[in-house]
Amino acid sequence: MPELPEVETIARQIRAVFLEKTIVKVAVNTPRLLKNVSATEFVRRLEGQPLREVTRRGKFLLWQGGTAYPVFHLGMSGNFFRRREQATHPEHIHLEFHFADGQTLFYQDVRKFGKIWLYEEPPKFPELGVEPLSENFSLNNLKKLLNLKNMNMKAFLMDQSNIAGIGNIYANEILFLSRISPFRKTREITEKEAEVFFREIRSVLERAVRNFGTTYSDFRTVEGSDGQNQFFLQVYQKAGEPCPVCGTPIEKAVLNSRSTFYCPKCQR
DNA sequence: TCTGACCTGCGA
DNA sequence: TCGCAGGTCAGA
Fold it and tell me: Residue A261 has what pLDDT?
C-alpha cells in the first residue's frame, strides 16, 4: 500500500492533530512488529512524552516522542487511524497511542509486513537514495544515477537506494507518462528522455500527495476517508483497457516479480 | 538477478 | 479453492 504519497499524507494528518500532545499510554498488541526494542522498553520510552515531530523519509514515517525516535515502515498494509471505527480492520490493530486530550492513534496492519524501530537519536537512513520531492533531487544527479546502473527502468524506480519512496503503483505511472518502456535499460535512456523522466517523477508524486494518496483497496487516510489519486491513474491495474493516449490495449507483464502495466505502443 | 518467504483478505 | 495484492529481505 503505502508509497511516498500515502506516507506523506499520514505524516501530515498525524501532525495536524497530535503534534505537541502528550502520549499518556501506549499499548503494544503485537510485540513481534517491534524490531530493535522490546514492547516494555517501547512503552517505557514513549509514555509521558510529547509528540514533538512527525516526518517522512522515503516510505518511512519518523516520530520524535520526547527524546526517543520511533520509526515505522508500513509494509504492504500498514496504516494509522485516529479513531478505531475508522480502521478498515479494527481486529488487526497492533499499536495504540493514547493522548492526554483523550484521542487515540491506532496502528493497523492486516498482513503484518510493517516494522517498527525505536532509536535514541534521529536515524540517518544511509541506504536510502535521494528524496524525489526535495531540492537535492536534480536532473544532473538523475542522469548520473542512470548511467551508473545497469538495470531495467522499472527495477531502477523500485530500488529505494536510487530514489526513495516509489513503489509499484507510481513506478508504472511515471514510466507511462515518460513514454519509457519498463524493460528499457537505464544506460539506454537518452538525454531528452531523462529530462521528461525527471519531470514526471516529481509531477506524478506531487499530484498523488495533493490527492491524499491512492486508495486501491486498503489505504485510508488517518481520518478514515479514501485517497483520491486512484481517479488519476493511467495504467496501473488497467490491463486490457485502451491506452488513454493511443487506444492500444494496456498490457500486463511480470517484471522483477511485480505486476507491470504499460502501453506497448506509447512506451519505447 | 531472481525466487520464495513473510501474512491475511478478497474476488474470480 | 486459488491466485493475487501497494514491500522488503535472505538466500540460491
Answer: 94
Catalytic residues of A: 2-3, 59, 258
Domain shared by A156 and A252, yes or no: yes
**Side-chain half-sphere of A60: how many Cα atoms within 13 Å?**
21
pLDDT of residue A82: 95
Question: Residue A161: CA atoms inside 13 Å, Cβ hemisphere, count?
Answer: 4
Count the domains in chain A.
2
Confidence (pLDDT) at A215: 86
- Cβ neighbours of residue A135 closer than 8 Å, sequence gap 6 or more: none
pLDDT, tens digit, 9 for 90 and up, residues A47-96: 999 999 999 999 999 999 999 999 999 999 999 999 988 989 999 999 99
Enter the DSSP assignment of A117.
E
Q: Which residue has the cell 544515477?
A: A145
**Cα gap A144→A86, rounded to integer Å:** 44
Query: HSE of A143 in the Cβ direction (CA atoms, 13 Å)?
Result: 11
Both A108 and A160 in one domain: the answer is: no
Residue stretches of chain A with pLDDT short of 70? 1
A109 touches strand C (CB under 7 A): no
C1’ C12 / CA A23, Å: 46
Strands of A104-109's sheet in order across? A23-28, A93-99, A104-109, A78-81
